[in-house]
Design goal:
This protein is mostly helical. It has four helices and two strands. Helices cover 44% and strands 10% of the residues. It is globular, with a radius of gyration of 17 Å.
Length: 117
């Protein structure tokens, strides 16, 4: 499987008016797969708009993603984001079965410790 992350990273570094610094799995190509995300930190040197130049089949889901992120961020946000991620993945990869139990365990542990992060 070809990973899309290095190509997108190169395009971002070329087009974003600022510094684009990768972190996470993209810095270790042997860990990448098609479902790995692309983690970058962007330091802008001037204002810029972040949008697609052309429509994609995923644009219809933008409102749903915005709704997940619209409220106060917290444990419910993490669970909602996980669910939002899982639906299209299951459409593309029928053998994928979402399992929120590990995330729920982490959230319970954080709540028990009194963590607000």
């Amino acid at each position: 499987m070809t990973s899309w992350q290095p190509d997108l990273l190169a395009r971002l570094a070329e087009r974003v008016p600022g510094d684009v610094v990768p972190y996470g799995s993209v810095t270790a190509p042997e860990l990448l797969d098609g479902w790995s995300d692309l983690d970058v930190a962007v330091t802008a040197r001037e204002p810029f708009a972040a949008h697609h130049r052309t429509a994609t089949e995923h644009d219809s889901r933008a409102a749903e993603a915005q709704a997940v992120l619209a409220g106060p961020l917290g444990a419910r946000t993490a669970l909602d984001a996980y669910t939002l991620y899982g639906r299209p993945r299951a459409e593309i990869e029928p053998v994928y079965a979402a399992d929120p139990a590990p995330l729920e365990a982490v959230l319970r542990r954080g709540a028990a410790s009194g963590s607000r992060r």
